[in-house]
Amino acid sequence: MSDPAPTRRLYIKTHGCQMNVYDSERMADLLSPLGYAMTERPEDADLVVLNTCHIREKATEKVYSELGYLKQMKLARQAAGQSMTIAVAGCVAQAEGKEIMHRQPAVDLVIGPQAYHQLPELIARAHRAKGERLSADFAADAKFDRLGAVRNPSGVTAFLTIQEGCDKFCTFCVVPYTRGAEFSRPVEAILAEARSLADQGVREVTLLGQNVNAYSGEGGLAGLARRLAKIEGLDRIRYTTSHPADMDDALIAAHGEVEALMPYLHLPVQAGSDRILRAMNRAHTADSYLRLVEKIRSQRPDIAMAGDFIVGFPGERDSDFEATLQLVREVGYAGAFSFKYSRRPGTPAAALPGQVADEVKDARLARLNALLDEQQTAFNESQAGRTLPVLFERAGRHPGQLSGRSPYLQAVHVSGPDHLIGQIVPVRIDSAAKMSLAGSLALEFA
Length: 446
Ligand code: SAH
Ligand code: SF4
Ligand code: F3S
What we know:
Elements: E1 8-14, H1 18-31, E2 36-38, E3 47-52, H2 57-79, E4 85-89, H3 90-103, E5 109-111, H4 119-128, E6 134-136, H5 143-147, E7 157-161, E8 163-164, H6 175-178, E9 183-184, H7 187-199, E10 204-208, H8 220-228, E11 236-240, H9 249-257, E12 264-266, H10 274-279, H11 286-299, E13 304-311, H12 318-331, E14 335-340, H13 358-381, E15 387-395, E16 401-405, E17 411-415, E18 424-432, E19 436-441
Parallel strand pairs: 1-2, 1-3, 3-4, 4-5, 5-6, 7-10, 10-11, 12-13, 13-14, 17-19
Antiparallel strand pairs: 8-9, 15-16, 15-18, 16-17, 18-19
Bound molecules: S-adenosyl-L-homocysteine, iron/sulfur cluster and FE3-S4 cluster.
The site of FE3-S4 cluster has 14 residues, from α1, α3 and α6.
Subunit structure: Monomer.
Domain MTTase N-terminal: 8-128
Domain Radical SAM core: 152-378
């Protein structure tokens, strides 16, 4: 027998959306056959991967300050006769790879999201050619083919990317430039990956895509959900993020028919003023969005709606902002993410007149958040007294406590035995707060 590969330590820091979380896991899967084991401490790492996000200015700035700290750690390791390879991945790597190389000489490798399958090769090259600095971005060959189907999941829920990229070009957004054109993985590859997850005890998958409901593999997202629902052990299916323009009748019907499709839908609207929606290049109006929500609720009356909002888009007047508040009141959201507009270089909205002052954005964000918080709390409180099936995911923060999720993606805390982790169990909801529910086991479990 040959000696096992020497253990090298890998530290990955992930920013941004769930797709980055998925990508980080896949990078770890790819590197493990090379002898890389994960560490929680960057100062111990032979290889550091910084998986970055470009969506707002703040996220991007963070990369450069973190690289400053990593450079210090790299120098300390070198002084002790060790080494540290620093790789920058993700959307900032794609958008400003050259600038990263220029601003931070400690970086060895810059790698865009379409090139992750080349990571082992690039790391090996970086090791051989000491001092050579490498970069890779949009790759001609499909990365998913080379990532393979075998996963090494760490819990009972998992992310699964089915679609990547975006052709919508909302005028505020960098994603079409960082993730490239829309690409859908073939159904069979997704089913194989899902089976591998289910075989390892995963009970819930969240299908990911920048425009997940634009999935264009055979049968569309509705067909895929129906096929995934048949996989033994896979009892819950979620997907995110959807665009209102791609919410077709087949998918809406599936919400009424496929039991595994969870009653929670993240359907960003961004704003409630048609004038602003047009300037954002969103393909919907406030009214068409409201009608869509109504149609979805006619199939699945209890569905929990979530959304994304941007306040202070260029040219947004008080009356436009009031229209956003009005739309929120009409929909009634169970959860939402709201952001101040951030001017992104290279996007059409960055050049628009009427940029809104930061104080105005702050004031609007505070009012919007107050309303959304109120709705979220009300939604959670409306569950008190009900019995909900909860998938237990992990031990809770306190001894003897378990933590799981309701069908509506609410966090639920319960006292109960550890062996319930990975099971879906009825829980009576006793009380609710803004962020979570507290309940008790509805049945006796020895
Ligand atoms: N593909 C998804 C989400 C992409 S980014 C969709 O179409 O909904 C996640 C959220 O970040 C967006 O929904 C939007 O609300 C926000 N966002 C994107 N660009 C932004 C910017 N320049 N400033 C502030 N928020 C932004
Ligand atoms: Fe960005 Fe719009 Fe595409 Fe979503 S749909 S990723 S907001 S361009
Ligand atoms: Fe950020 Fe890229 Fe995701 S910009 S939100 S990491 S797609």
